[in-house]
Amino acid sequence: MMSNDPVTMVAALLAVMGVAMVIWLLIAAGLRECAASCLCLAGANALQALALVVRWLPESQWRTPGLIADVLLLGAFAMLHLSVPLMDDKPTRWPLLASALALLAALLTQLPTGPHHAAHHLVVNGAGGLFCFFAARNTVRLLRDRELRPALSRIFGLPFLVIGGLLLVRPLATLWMPDVPASLDTRGAFNIAWLWAALVMTLTVNGTLAFLLMLKLVLQIRRLTLRDPLTDALNRRAMAEAMAAEHQRVRRGHTYAVVLLDMDRFKQLNDTLGHAAGDEALKTLVEVLRPCLREVDLLGRLGGEEFCALLPYTGVAGAALVAERMRQLLETTDFRWQGRSWPLSASFGITESAPSDEDPTEVLRRADEALYRAKAQGRNLVQAVEAIDQPAQPPRPQSASGQGDPVAS
C-alpha cells in the first residue's frame, strides 16, 4: 500500500540514502582503484540526507537552516557529477567545481529564501539538475568507451536525466501552479508523487552507478586474461583468437599479413645488465613499435622476446614497409639502463595469408621461417616468405643498416 504521508516518505528517503552511503564506504574500503569514486558517491548520499534533515530544522532570523540545506544539496549533486569520471580514472576539475559552488552559495545569500520564493529554488534546483545532466552525459560516454551499444548507453544515463528533471519540475510547478505545495512536509498528491519518484530514482541512480563499477571490474578482469602483464601487448591466447577470426575472412577475399619479430641478443642483454633491464627493454620495444601500427592492427607477445603483429587487409608489400619502419625505429632507439647504453634491434619475418591456408598456424609457420632466415643472415633484417599461390610482390624497401637487402623472399 502506497504511503500518503510525506514525513514517512522523507524518512524512507533518509533510510535509502543512509544504507547507500554505508555500502559505498564499504566498497571504497575494499577497492583501492575505485576508492575516490566510491567516496564521492558515499558523500553524495550523505549530503543529500543531511540536507533533508537540516531543512526540517526551524528557521531563524538568519535563515541559516534553509541556506545550509541548499548548499549541502548542491554539494551532493556536484559529488554525484564527479563520481562518474573518477570511476573511469579520468581527470576531474575540482578547483572549477569548487569555485562554481562558492559562487552559487554567495548568490543564494542574496536571494530571499523560503518555500514560496521561486528564484531561490530555481537557482538551487537548476544547478542541481545541471550537475545531473552532466552525470548523464559522462555515463553515456563511459559506456560508449566500453563499446556498449549506444541505445544501452542512453538507457543507463536516463536515471540522471530523470533526477535532473525532478529537480526542475518542483520549482516550476510551484511557480506556475500556486496550489502546489512548495514545502516537502505538506500533504498533497503532487508532493507524494514527487517523493515516490525521488525515492525510486535514488535507488535507480545508486544501482546504475553500482553497475558501472561492476562493468569496470569485469572489463579489467577480461583485460588481464587477454593482455601480457609486462608489456600490455596482447598475450598468446588473444593473438590466436584474433588470427582465427581474421582467417575466417580469407575465404571471402580479404588478405592479412603477419609480422613476426624476435629481439636480437636478448639473452646477452639479460646476462650483462640483468633481468630487470631485459623487462624494461621489452616494454621499450612495444612502445617503439605501437606508433607503426594502425587502429585495426594488433600487437601481441607470443613469449619471451618474440612478438607478432597482425595486419588485416594487408599483403606482403605493406607488411614489408611496416616491418622496415619498425626495424629502423628500434635500431635508432637510445636504450639506457642505470647509466649504461645498449643497442636494441630485432629480426623480422613477414608473410601474408593465402586461400590455401587451412588455419593461421600455416601463416605463422611461414612467418617463422622468414624470421629464421633473418636471424641466420646476420640479424636486424626483414625477411619474407610468400605463399605458393600468391603472385609475385613488388620490390621491397632497402635497409638503412648496411646489412644488405632487408626483405628477401
From TrEMBL:
Gene3D superfamilies: 3.30.70.270
EC number: 2.7.7.65
Residue ranges crossing the lipid bilayer per the database entry: 6-27, 34-56, 62-82, 94-112, 118-136, 156-173, 193-219
Record keywords: Membrane, Transmembrane, Transmembrane helix
Domain named GGDEF: residues: 254-387
Enzyme class at the top of the EC tree: transferase
Compositionally biased spans, kind Low complexity: 398-409
InterPro entries for the chain: Diguanylate_Cyclase, GGDEF_dom, Nucleotide_cyclase, Rev_trsase/Diguanyl_cyclase
Region (Disordered), start-end ranges: 386-409
Catalysed conversion reaction: 2 GTP = 3',3'-c-di-GMP + 2 diphosphate
Family annotation (Pfam families): GGDEF
Protein name, per record: diguanylate cyclase
Organism: Roseateles terrae
